[in-house]
Amino acid sequence: MLNGLRVQMLRFADDIAVLAPDEQILNRSLDCMNEVLNEYKMKINMKKTEVLVCSKEPETVNILVNNEPIKQVKHFKYLGSTITENAKSLMDIKQRIGQAKTAFMKNKSILCSNNIDMNVRKNLSMECSV
């Protein structure tokens, strides 16, 4: 729910995340989406399509498109963020900390140099963190 509205899809460019409260509704949603895509001579790329169940207890589901099963995963990346089956952010946070460390290490000699003005180093550090 977002501002009292049920969000059923997250779309950005050609990436779509379909949200559903259960297996049956997700299968119906994908069938409808597939029908519309077929009308425009388009299709779902099954190699890039995955299903993730966010739940306290691990659950296996059977989601199909054109009678072909979609691979179920324990986590996936959507728009740069890692989403996990337990809906916690720990994996995403660890990855972002790792990326920040890598960015810092690449620029450590500049960021820690006393020969470069502090304001320049602050600005560079802000650019690296974005």
UniProtKB/TrEMBL annotation:
Pfam family of the protein (one): RVT_1
SUPFAM superfamilies found in the cross-reference section: DNA/RNA polymerases (SSF56672)
Superkingdom, natural source: Eukaryota
One of the protein's GO biological processes: DNA biosynthetic process
InterPro entries in the record: DNA/RNA_pol_sf, RT_dom
Limits of the Reverse transcriptase domain: 1-83
Entry protein name: Reverse transcriptase domain-containing protein
Species name: Cacopsylla melanoneura
